[in-house]
Amino acid sequence: MNKVTLLLLGFAVPALTFGCAPEPKTYADCVLQHVKPSMTKEAVELACQACRDKFPEPRPVERLLTRAELQQVEMNYDTREAPDSVKSSAADSEAWEYLHNGMKDTLRSVTYYDVVRVKQETGNQYRVRRYRIDLNLPPQSGTSVRVPLMPEDGLGLRLAWGVCSATTFGAMPADSLPTCDVPDDTLIARARRNEVLVQNAEALSRVR
Fold first, then answer.
1. Taking the model in full, what pTM does it have?
2. CB-side exposure of 197: number of CA atoms within 13 Å?
3. Under CATH, which architecture does the 62-207 domain have?
4. Model confidence at 68, in pLDDT bands (50, 70, 90)?
């Protein structure tokens, strides 16, 4: 007796016995309706698989982190985790950042931003770049991630960077709101403040 025959028998017996049974609405209802004690192990497995095909497992819902959760996600410049061969070959095209997940949930992704000052004939321009980094970072753990750099990037031109949003799986905690993406103007203002602080520190060092 082949698998197809077993599968047909597995569904035929309940159909004959409970001709007026309502259509199952969930995987559990399907299993209860079609799996019987008299069925062989193989027939039970085939029936369960048929029920699973009809009622697939729901995929985890990805959601934005709350502000409190986002404060537990830290990204800092750190090359200690990068292999030496990668450091030397990719020094001009990427940087390494160390990402730490201080939450109790797995970190699914982060949206990273940086603000770059580009010198042009008309004066300095500030460019905001954002890109999503997909990962599955367990709670209370860290990893090194690659951050691409533009050809215009040079020493001291990246004025501000960090994580502006991130995602995890599960329901939103009660009485909490998801984080919203930070506008470009806010990030540029943050970068300009950093630039002024650096300039002031340099001027102070020259006076001393």
1. 0.56
2. 8
3. Sandwich (2.60)
4. confident
